[in-house]
Amino acid sequence: MTAAHTDRADHRPAADPSVDGLSVSPGQPSAPAEQRGLTTIPASVVGRIAEQVASECTGVGGAAGGMLGVGARRDFDSRPSATCDLYGTVAVLRLDVGVAFPVDLTATCRSLRQHVRYRVHELTGVEVGRLDIEISWLNPAAATRGALK
């Protein structure tokens, strides 16, 4: 009996690495990268990744609960919402976020934009060509709330 054969039903024979005339060496790919296929990531997945990545930024949150935006509460533990359109390997993202206030909104958006662009590319290989950020709500700090009344 050889290593590739067994009489137990729960074990499968080892695959022969030289099937179809290709020999495989340990640590070497079986074929050049351009011949191994293509990994496709749907736009909705890139959007969900952008949501998660945006939630990693301090002072940025999303809306939680509600139906069609009615009854939603502002929550820094929720992910912001994102939509994505893919054009080849370039993504166009739109983020809807809430931001803690008072902060420098320009610096916060610049930091958020940099972080999302870098992490989405790092995780998916997709370049973020355009990133629109909509700040749909602000959450004033407790000390500021009394001053606003």
From TrEMBL:
Q: Which organism is it from?
A: Dietzia maris
Protein family: Belongs to the asp23 family.
Q: Where is this region: Disordered?
A: 1-38
Q: Ranges of Basic and acidic residues compositional bias?
A: 1-14
Record's protein name: Asp23/Gls24 family envelope stress response protein
